[in-house]
């Protein structure tokens, strides 16, 4: 079974009516208008919501990878659903792929190349250039915003 992220739907590279696809309610709600909305409303879809234990496991993993602050609730739903059913995520979102990789969940890109190694993040102040291991929005030293970067 494949768990479909919004980016996969927007890529238009998948057949939405495939019986092997699972959608979370949040993914469906992100498609608000246009031809895709009409198509989603006209075909039977396999829509499921993951359990709270799976959601909590994803939040824990996303915190460990440093991706939690860039994941939406819908992104967390998608990863949690794949975790729960041992499914494969189809998404072009690198944060989703990174957390999935950390949790040993399989993933495929819909339109873009997938990540091929686990990403680790640090945060650099755009003002004083100090580096922080954990996410902070603004530097406590100089007050500038921080920017995320990968490291080995």
From TrEMBL:
The keyword Metal-binding applies. InterPro entries: NOB1 (IPR039907), PIN-like_dom_sf (IPR029060), Ribonuclease_PIN (IPR033411). Keywords: Hydrolase, Metal-binding, Nuclease, Toxin-antitoxin system. One of its GO terms (biological process) is maturation of SSU-rRNA. It comes from the Archaea. GO terms for cellular component: cytoplasm; preribosome, small subunit precursor. Residues 3-85 form the Ribonuclease PIN domain. This is Endoribonuclease Nob1. It comes from Picrophilus torridus (strain ATCC 700027 / DSM 9790 / JCM 10055 / NBRC 100828 / KAW 2/3).
